[in-house]
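Sequence design from tokenized structure. All designs in this work follow the same two-part layout: the structure record, then the generated sequence. An example of the structure record is given first.
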């Protein structure tokens, strides 16, 4: 007869066997799928030494490949591939030939699978008031359809104004498609999307856990912010939908962010990124959209690069590295989170050592403590190489902006592993001297409202602060 004590011992032995068996199986998966060697080693060690915690953590946070998502620009997938191929054929007449010395643009264009397109109007939008005014005016003027995609949508004054404008447009008979990330917008109440749907808006969440390979994954996010009106005008940049972007959050202060309006053929490229996300979110339903480019006389070239964990390469990281390696005079970068990978870190140091004016603009205050601590593990080697690091003072800096010589970029990519490998992101590059001058003026104003860090400041940090920075650095792959 089996005693209770023996049954408990048998249960415990079985639990240990299953846990370690799952640890071995998971470590084999990590060996084959984790993209970086340090990350694979860290997972394999933890999965085999302490599988009781590491196994569930791995299946929620460990994967870096988003299974099942189809990129119509790169792979054949029936209806989507045929539709995308047709769209690319339509923008071909607006392709801008690249000179032999534009190596960065050549690489970015190949990563994007979309050409550099001419005849666009690029409008720099600084902070929330200007950005929301531009987007809301665009929605008001829509005649054929509106595409809306955001990582975070809040049910506050800004979110309700967006909802009111979208419902009004839908009731006028204009098709409206609303796509949101359910993890980023976890606090968005069901009543918000129900009201949109009741007015005739087509609503979909991104479904980041859809598919057997993603079932337990909470680490993948669709971080894109895209608005397209009538296939003619598009908006992309750092702002989500929320009152904090108007400076109404006391903890964040005067939120500093940047957005971009593109009118012309480049709006088709933004629309294409939305279409691929919509295809995934809805299981293959493709909306009827206008794919005829609307050129702007005397416009500027623009290149839109959508990146994400479904890509063959680590697209966002490679984009950043090739841009930095191409810099000759300046590389000014704004990012709210600064936890770069080894390739980007090396590119920053090499650019500064070549004599390039490398400046990084990051916030003084932050909304993610671990990221703020991890940042200190990277700063001293950069300062030693000649990189200048500026801390923005008035409030939380959230813009993701690049200025490489006379080529500016605005989008959603942060300088961290999450943007490089885990998030779906999008960036618009504008290689135009006049637009670069506007972007430079914006940067210079931001630098005037910032303080420059020094090696002495870092040396003065206490032992426990340095230890905390190194400990936070170990979390870099998931920050």
């Amino acid at each position: 007869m089996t005693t209770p004590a023996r049954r408990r011992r048998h249960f415990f032995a079985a639990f240990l066997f299953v846990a370690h068996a799952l640890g071995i199986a998971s470590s084999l998966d990590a060996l084959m799928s984790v993209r970086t060697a340090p990350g694979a080693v860290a997972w394999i060690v933890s999965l085999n030494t302490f599988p009781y915690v590491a196994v569930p953590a791995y299946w929620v946070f460990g994967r870096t490949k988003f299974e099942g998502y189809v990129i119509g620009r790169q792979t054949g997938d029936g209806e989507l591939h045929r539709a995308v191929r047709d769209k690319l054929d339509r923008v071909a007449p607006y392709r801008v030939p690249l000179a032999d010395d534009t190596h960065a643009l050549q690489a970015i264009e190949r990563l994007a699978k979309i050409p550099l397109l001419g005849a666009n109007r690029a409008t720099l939008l600084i902070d929330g008031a200007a950005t929301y005014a531009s987007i809301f005016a665009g929605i008001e003027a829509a005649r054929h359809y509106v595409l809306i995609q955001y990582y975070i949508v809040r049910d506050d004054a800004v979110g309700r104004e967006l909802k009111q404008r979208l419902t009004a447009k839908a009731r006028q008979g204009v098709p409206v498609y609303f796509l949101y990330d359910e993890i980023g917008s976890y606090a968005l109440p069901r009543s918000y999307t129900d009201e949109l749907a009741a007015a005739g808006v087509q609503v979909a969440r991104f479904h980041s856990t859809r598919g057997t390979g993603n079932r337990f994954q909470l680490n993948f996010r669709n971080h894109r912010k895209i608005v397209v009106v009538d296939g003619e005008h598009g908006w992309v940049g750092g702002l989500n939908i929320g009152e904090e972007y108007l400076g109404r959050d006391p903890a964040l202060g005067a939120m500093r962010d940047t957005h971009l309006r593109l009118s012309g053929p480049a709006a088709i490229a933004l629309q294409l990124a939305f279409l691929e996300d919509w295809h995934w979110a809805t299981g293959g339903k493709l909306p009827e959209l206008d794919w005829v480019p609307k050129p702007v006389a005397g416009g500027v070239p623009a290149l839109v690069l959508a990146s994400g964990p479904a890509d063959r390469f680590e697209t966002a990281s490679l984009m950043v590295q090739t841009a930095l390696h191409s810099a000759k005079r300046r590389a000014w970068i704004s990012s709210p989170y600064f936890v770069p990978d080894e390739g980007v870190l090396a590119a920053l140091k090499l650019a500064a050592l070549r004599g390039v004016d490398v400046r990084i603009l990051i916030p003084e205050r932050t909304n993610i403590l671990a990221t703020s601590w991890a940042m200190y593990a990277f700063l001293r080697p950069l300062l030693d190489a000649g990189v200048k690091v500026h801390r923005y003072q008035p409030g939380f800096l959230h813009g993701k902006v690049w200025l490489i010589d006379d080529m500016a970029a605005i989008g959603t990519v942060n300088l961290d592993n999450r943007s490089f490998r885990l998030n779906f992101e999008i960036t618009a590059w504008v290689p135009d001297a006049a637009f670069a001058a506007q972007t430079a003026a914006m940067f210079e104003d931001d630098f005037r409202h910032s303080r420059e860090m020094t090696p002495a400041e870092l040396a003065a940090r206490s032992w426990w602060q340095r230890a905390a920075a190194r400990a936070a650095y170990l979390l870099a792959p998931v920050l």
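The chain has three domains: 4-62, 79-303, 315-478. We note this feature because it recurs in several other targets discussed in the main text.
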